Amino acid sequence: MRTSSLLARRATAVGGAALTAVLLASCASVAPGSAGGDAQPPSGGGAGAGGWPGPATSATSQARTELAALQVAPQHAMSGYSRDRFPLWAPQGGNCDTREAVLKRDGKNVATDGQCKATSGSWTSPYDGQAVTDASKLDIDHVVPLAAAWRAGADTWSDEQRKALANDLTRPQLQAVSASSNRGKGDQGPDQWKPPLKEAWCSYAKAWTDVKAFYKLTVTDAEKSALGQMIDTCGA
Hints:
Elements: H1 2-28, H2 60-69, E1 91-93, E2 96-97, H3 98-106, E3 108-112, E4 118-124, E5 131-132, E6 138-142, H4 146-151, H5 159-166, E7 174-178, H6 179-185, H7 201-215, H8 221-231
Antiparallel strand pairs: 1-2, 3-4, 4-5, 6-7
Helix pairs in contact: 2-7, 2-8, 7-8
């Protein structure tokens, strides 16, 4: 009896361990936020840490390092510039384009039609805190405006390189924001325009710095100074 009981306990332990291994393997096979094939982008949870939706910005210490390394140079001329030189919006799978992907990512309870157009949901504009429930009242802002990128070196790029910047869902370059805040910003740099919501300055400056560092775009002295002042609002 004692031997039978011991064998039963060992069998139960082995079976439990096997089941645990299967469950862990199943979890590991699914990447967070991933979708197979041409599945539509998953609806996001709205604003993330610090009220900033979308891809995370770098840590403050890293942002300071990136900012220090940005090359200061005079702005390039706008001759030859056109938004058409930055092809948008690019297809993102599942009938979605970049705009619709950002709306799904940054909103809460976003419902879409067969063409991936947002039909309902709620969003909080990170620049001014405005609550929005009608997707048509949202603009997708390029944190580093396309014209600003042109003046900072993108005028020498190929159209494919400019397309990558204009549709970048990996870095914190695209934000669903209120139309009024986006149009108030225009193509101005951080020395000329800052988000009306001061709580957004930290993330905005880090996002701008991350994008310029990744794409090796230049800055002006005034721009670099303004970014530093905004990053100072992040604390340590």
